[in-house]
Specification:
Elements lengths: L29 H5 L5 E6 L2 E7 L2 E3 L1 E3 H7 L4 E8 L2 E7 L2 H7 L5 E5 H7 L7 H16 L11 E3 L4 E3 L6 E2 L4 E10 L2 E6 L11 E4 L6 H13 L3 E12 L4 E10 L13 E6 H8 L15 H12 L8
Parallel strand pairs: 1-6, 11-15
Antiparallel strand pairs: 1-2, 1-4, 2-3, 2-7, 5-6, 8-9, 9-10, 11-12, 11-13, 12-16, 14-15
Bound molecules: zinc ion.
Length: 316
């Protein structure tokens, strides 16, 4: 049981716990898999997900023929098997998605909105994240980064080969550290200018080449807020398909307390005590400050601190 029952049951972390078996050994049979009459496809156009309107939300899973009838596919990737049934991600491009918005039977919106508003059944979020990240990678990697020739999609989307220089290219995911620095009973939150009014969150940044996760946590916290951190403790990870990141959640022990905000990165940063952070999680803050929604890992990182205090760093 949570040490803070007022926070309610722990919500599910979005885009995680996929029910898809990626079945990598089947990637050479993509054609046969697509001919399975039970196969289903998620259709993605840039940031937009195409769904059929249903019960105030949308059903994002189309039959292969129905997906093909929506628009011409630019790319198709094999996501894996759901209960033995093949699932694909089909990319139709941004313009085709815009055109489809004229149809009354479809609900077309971006994946963040779908996740935050719960517009599709939760089990669809992980494969939608997989499809969106993969299709984004293909859309940005049509040409060989070694020699510039047009490359070809192979292995059902899990590799691109260059026919000119024979280089092989694999889909990638970008590691991002997202962390909460802790000073006793206080935690450090920041605001980016693009955040909705009143929202404060963990600091975050890309892991740089040649850096460990712990080093990235310390560097980003120092660069963005001027705080030096010592011990770093891993919390959890979350696929974050905007466009293709892996969020690596951590708690970090602050060794200093004087904040110096890098205004090119953040609008502001300050310390919040546990009770104030609790009110933000509960949406009961007196001046309506809040955290990101429960679909995002930031909510869970902050909540773990509210529940456990500095013990979340692993020290008694
Ligand atoms: Zn090449």
């Amino acid at each position: 049981m949570s040490p803070r029952p007022d926070l309610g049951p722990k919500p599910h972390l979005g885009y995680t716990a996929s029910l898809i078996d990626r079945a990598a050994h089947r990637r050479l049979d993509a054609k046969a898999l697509a001919e399975d009459t039970r196969a289903g496809a998620y259709v993605v156009g840039g940031e937009m997900i195409i769904t059929r309107k249903r019960d105030g939300g949308g059903d994002p899973l189309f039959g292969i023929d129905a997906a093909g009838a929506l628009a011409t596919a630019q790319e198709s990737v094999f996501l894996g098997l759901a209960d033995g049934v093949p699932r694909f991600g089909v990319g139709i491009g941004k313009d085709a998605a815009e055109t489809l918005k004229a149809r009354n039977d479809l609900l077309i919106t971006d994946l963040r909105t779908i996740a935050v508003q719960g517009l599709v059944a939760p089990e669809h979020l992980p494969p939608l994240a997989e499809a969106k990240a993969m299709l984004h990678w293909h859309a940005r990697h049509r040409f060989c980064s070694n020699c510039g020739a047009a490359s070809m999609l192979v292995e059902a989307g899990w590799r691109r080969d260059c026919p000119a220089c024979k280089a092989t290219h694999f889909p990638r995911t970008d590691p991002v550290v997202i962390m909460l620095a802790i000073d006793g009973d206080r935690c450090l939150l920041g605001r980016q200018t693009r955040f909705v009014k009143g929202m404060w969150s963990c600091l975050a940044g890309f892991v740089e080449p040649g850096e460990t996760i712990e080093e990235a946590v310390r560097r980003e916290t120092r660069e963005e807020a001027g705080i030096t951190c010592g011990q770093v403790r891993y919390f959890a990870t979350q696929p974050w398909p905007f466009p293709m990141s892996l969020m690596i959640g951590c708690h970090a022990e602050a060794l200093t307390t004087d904040i110096a905000v890098d205004r090119s990165e953040l609008e502001d940063a300050r310390w919040f005590d546990r009770e104030e952070a609790a009110l933000m999680l509960l949406r009961r803050h007196p001046v309506k400050l809040g955290t990101p929604p429960a679909v995002a890992i930031a909510y869970h990182i902050i909540r773990a601190f509210v529940e456990e205090g500095a013990a979340v760093l692993g020290r008694a």
